[in-house]
Amino acid sequence: MIKQSHYKNKKSIVLENKYIRAEFIPNPGGKLSSLINKKTGFEYLVQRGNTIYCDQPFDGVYVKGECSGYDDMFPTIDTCFYENEPWKGVKMADHGEVWSLPWEYKIEKNSLCLSVSGVRFPYSLTKKIHFSSHNRLRIDYSLVNNSPFDFEFLWAGHMMFNVEEGTKIEVPTDCKQTITIFSNRGRKFGDLNDWPYFRNTDGTSYKADVARPKEIMGKEKFYFTNKLKNGWCKLVYPNKKELKVFFTAKTVPYLGIFINEGGWDDLYNIFIEPCTVAYDRPDLAKKFGQISKVGPSGKYTWYIDIMI
Questions:
Q1: With CB atoms counted within 10 Å of each terminal CB, which end of the chain scores lower, N or C?
Q2: Residue 178 to residue 196: CA distance in whole angstroms
């Protein structure tokens, strides 16, 4: 069933079956704002307590906005400037363009189609959403380059999942090394660790694949340094409920994780971020040999499958 509804003061579209309730907001961001397991009532995505949705203007500051649920980060995460002609020097907005833009939507028989066009860059981004099975929500993405030039970009799924103490993170077996992006535990940008053991500044280590108490007040973002052969990441909660994210490793080959144990904005959650390139910026990723691009008048496709 697909129906129109309201999320706070925003128009929303709800996809629902006997097991899952998924709610999308076309304006702004075309975001997945809520994902509920109807059998348990558990809300997987971070919610904010305000009753009025916290908007930001285009090129606004993402973390001053609603900052919840699952947003698309495109064509960057961190603010930077495009490096190549004909857009050399053009500013790439904070957390990208599309999270703050209104998306057009169309409800079809069994699916929801959301689409948006670029402001500073000539692209079209579309996603088609449906249930691929009773417990799986499928999002098929299509990026079209509406120009005669190569367009380099970063796409990341900014998925803010609620956790409980003891929640375990599982990743493919070839994910053996991480690189730190930021941390409030003394680790610096570029520090390498062997997954899942993270070294502390005092020489001790701990297992980073298990959520510690919120009182730790930790925050840590890292990427796995390898290209994934199989695209997936899984959260296993203490009461045996599970969530698994699948993604297209061929076109979305990297995985970032931000473990937030109360250290940022008084939230207790884990960000799972499948991405086309790592390091939060396409120009920085390029320095590490990572490039994702769509050719002249070309198309780039991928999918996200969330199973609960």
A1: N
A2: 9
